[in-house]
Amino acid sequence: MGTKELIAKRAAQELSPHSVINLGIGIPTLVPDYLNESQFYLHTENGLLGVTSVDEEDIDPNLVNAGKLPVGEAEGAAYFHSADSFAMIRGGHVDVAILGALQVDGNGQVANWAIPGKDIIGVGGAMDLLSGAKKIIITMGHVSKDGSPKFVERCTYPITSTRVADVVITDLAVFRWKDGGYELVELMGEATLEEVREKTTAAFRVSDALLLKEEC
Description:
The chain is of the alpha/beta class. It is built from 5 helices and 13 strands. The strands form 2 sheets. Strands 4-3-2-1-5-8-10-11-12-13 form a 10-stranded mixed β-sheet, with helices on both faces. A 3-stranded mixed β-sheet has the order 7-6-9, with no helix packed on it. The longest helix has 10 residues, at about 5-10. It is globular. The model has no long low-confidence stretch (mean pLDDT about 95). It holds the Pfam family CoA_trans.
């Protein structure tokens, strides 16, 4: 299993059946591969509730998600104007948003829409989702392509929202926001506690359960 798939599979474990879930671009789009889609309501902000996977021979070029990837429509799916879709988000009707990130910092702030000096897509719906969704899950590589940490003391890229991310899942670890800071609750794959500390500049606590497991 590849790194992205490992992260997506772990993110799927955070989801409760019958919840409304918005999936961001990149790793989040892999999450449905690890879900029984009939038990979840997948939402895309360009106007569809009831997103499902689609076989190549059934692709409709007019039916895409917010990342312009082809999708299918589940039985009972509903279409609506993008303004209504964002009203759902802003009104608190999306249970979980799973988003990628360029950086997350120890204060729970997320930067995922701009790198100074580089031309990338822009903020899209991320600002609204970070403000309106009931639970935020960030999925990302633990370090960038040049090896620099992405879980940092303080974001150096423009932040997307002042909302705290509830869960951060990387290829090395799972962090959960608790009592005003992040707690490392799980190591991913073959990662070690020492490796996570080496590649992280954000402050975090280690859960008692994980410490006990490491001692054993």
